[in-house]
Design goal:
This protein has 13 helices and 21 strands. The protein has 448 residues and is α/β, with parallel strands linked by helices.
C-alpha cells in the first residue's frame, strides 16, 4: 500500500486541471481535485464560453439591419440584458453539471474549498489534510488592475458577465484581445464604447496588417479609440464616473472596464512558504516536464504564463499524464499554435507574423488580399475581410496565415493543420477552392 491518500492531488478545476485529473484517473491513478470557486475555471465561467455567447448576442443587430437587402422585413427589435444573463447562467450551470459528472464517472474525488499546500506532499482544504505523492497546481490567472486613485470604481472581465444592467457608456482600458472583444460585444449591444490604450496600436504581438485593419474596422463601426494615453484617476460624480486622462482631460462614463492583463494565480496558498520558484511576473517556474523546483509539485496552464489558451492547458494536462503515468512522452509543441480574437470582425491567426518571418528568414513573400464579402454586397454593412499569407521564398513553405473577417477562426483552424504539416504555397495553389466562400481566397492568392 502507498503511504499517501492520493497519487495525484490537483489544485484548480479549470480546463487543464480537469483534463489531467480525468486522464490520470482513467489510468488507475488515485486522484483528488480541489476547487474553491467553480468547476470549469475561467474558460467556462468568466472567459471563453460566456464571452462567445455574448458575441453571438451582439451580432444580431447587424443581422437585423442586413435582412432588408435580402428581401426580409424585420419588425422593431429590443434587447433585454437580463434575459441574456439569465440564459447564460443556465448554460453555465449545465456545464458545471457536465464537469461534475465527468469527474465523478472518471473516479476523481472532488473536494470543494480553498486548498493550502502545507508541505511537498500535504494539502489542507477547510481544515482537512490530504497527503499525495504528487501535487499539481492548475490555478489559472486573475485579472490585474493597476493601483490608481478610484480603482474601487472599476470592473474587470470577471464582473462583466454578471452586471445587473447594461451601461449606456463604457470606457474599456487596455488594448489586448479581452479589450477589443468586449468593445465589439458592447458596441453591438448598443453601448457607447471607448477604448483607452496606452500603446499606439491594439493587439500587441499580432501581425501589423491585422492590427491596423481591425482598428480601421472598429472605428468605422463607431467605436472610439483613445491611443497613446492612459487613465490617471477615476472619480465618482454621483450618477456616473469621470476618467481623468494623463493629459488632464476628463471623459464621462457609466462604467470603466479594466482589461489590462491577467496575473498568474500563484500566491496565497502556500507556494511561497514551500519555496516554489516564481518568475518576476509571479508565474510558477517549471521545466519541460511541468515540474517545479520542488520535485513532487507540478504546474501547468495560465499559472505558468507560457501560452495562456484553454486548448494549450488541456494539451499540457494530457502531456503531463502521458509523461508520469503512461510512460509515453508526448510533449506539447508550442510552435504554430492557432489563436482567435472574437472581435468584430473576428481574427484568426497561425504561425509567424510578417515581422517575425523577416527576422527569421532572409527572403519571404507576402500574399495579401482585402475585399468586401459577398454577403455585404447586399447587406449594406460596410465591413471588409483581410487575408494574408507569409511564404519562405527558397523553400516555398507557408509559415504564417492571418485573417480578419467573418468566420476567420473557423477558417484558420483548418489552415493551422496545413501549416503544421509543412504545406508549401504550391500545395495551396493546387488545392481546389470551395466556391463561393471567403476561404477559397487562401488557395487563389497568386501575386506576391
Amino acid at each position: 500500500m502507498t503511504q499517501y491518500d492520493y497519487d495525484l492531488f490537483v489544485i484548480g478545476a479549470g480546463s487543464g486541471g480537469v483534463r489531467a485529473a480525468r486522464m490520470a484517473s482513467g489510468h488507475g491513478v488515485r486522484v483528488a481535485i480541489a476547487e474553491e470557486r467553480y468547476l470549469g475555471g475561467t474558460c467556462v465561467n468568466v472567459g471563453c464560453v460566456p464571452k462567445k455567447l455574448f458575441v453571438y448576442a451582439s451580432q444580431f443587430r447587424d443581422q437585423f439591419d442586413s435582412a432588408a437587402g435580402f428581401g426580409w422585413t424585420v419588425g422593431n427589435s429590443t434587447f433585454n440584458w437580463t434575459s441574456l444573463i439569465t440564459n447564460k447562467n443556465q448554460e453555465i450551470e449545465r456545464l458545471h453539471a457536465v464537469y461534475n459528472n465527468l469527474l465523478q464517472k472518471s473516479g476523481v474525488c472532488i473536494i470543494t474549498g480553498r486548498a493550502q499546500v502545507l508541505d511537498a506532499h500535504t494539502v489542507a482544504v477547510d481544515g482537512t489534510e490530504y497527503s499525495a505523492e504528487r501535487i499539481l497546481i492548475a490555478t489559472g490567472g486573475w485579472p490585474s488592475v493597476p493601483e490608481i486613485p478610484g480603482k474601487q470604481h472599476v470592473v474587470t472581465s470577471n464582473e462583466m458577465f454578471f452586471l445587473e444592467q447594461l451601461p449606456k457608456r463604457i470606457i474599456i482600458v487596455g488594448g489586448g484581445y479581452i479589450a477589443v472583444e468586449f468593445a465589439s460585444i458592447l458596441h453591438g449591444l448598443g453601448v457607447n464604447t471607448t477604448i483607452c490604450h496606452r500603446g499606439h496600436k491594439l493587439l500587441r504581438g499580432f501581425d501589423e496588417d491585422i492590427r491596423d485593419f481591425l482598428a480601421e474596422e472598429m472605428i468605422k463601426k463607431g467605436i472610439k479609440l483613445l491611443l497613446n494615453t492612459d487613465i490617471e484617476a477615476i472619480e465618482s460624480t454621483g450618477d456616473c464616473f469621470a476618467a481623468r486622462l494623463i493629459d488632464g482631460s476628463k471623459v464621462s462614463t457609466d462604467l470603466v472596464l479594466y482589461a489590462t492583463g491577467r496575473t498568474p494565480n500563484s500566491t496565497g496558498f502556500g507556494m511561497e512558504k514551500l519555496g516554489v520558484e516564481l518568475d518576476t511576473e509571479l508565474a510558477i517556474k517549471v521545466n519541460s516536464d511541468y515540474q517545479t523546483n520542488v520535485p513532487s509539485i507540478y504546474a501547468l496552464g495560465d499559472v505558468t504564463n507560457r501560452v495562456n489558451l484553454t486548448p494549450v492547458a488541456i494539451a499540457e494536462g494530457m502531456a503531463l499524464v502521458n509523461q508520469l503515468y503512461v510512460k509515453q512522452p508526448r510533449p506539447v509543441d508550442y510552435d504554430t499554435i492557432p489563436t482567435a480574437v472574437f472581435s468584430q470582425p473576428t481574427i484568426g491567426t497561425v504561425g509567424l507574423t510578417e515581422a517575425q518571418a523577416r527576422e527569421k528568414y532572409p527572403d519571404i513573400d507576402i500574399y495579401k488580399t482585402s475585399f468586401k464579402p459577398m454577403k455585404n454586397t447586399l447587406s449594406g454593412i460596410d465591413e471588409k475581410t483581410l487575408m494574408k499569407m507569409i511564404v519562405v521564398r527558397d523553400t516555398d513553405r507557408v509559415v504564417g496565415m492571418h485573417m480578419a473577417g467573418t468566420d476567420a477562426p473557423e477558417i484558420i483552424q483548418g489552415m493551422a493543420i496545413a501549416i503544421r504539416a509543412g504545406a508549401t504555397k504550391a500545395v495551396f495553389d493546387s488545392t481546389i477552392g470551395i466556391h463561393p466562400t471567403a476561404a477559397e481566397e487562401f488557395v487563389t492568392l497568386r501575386k506576391a
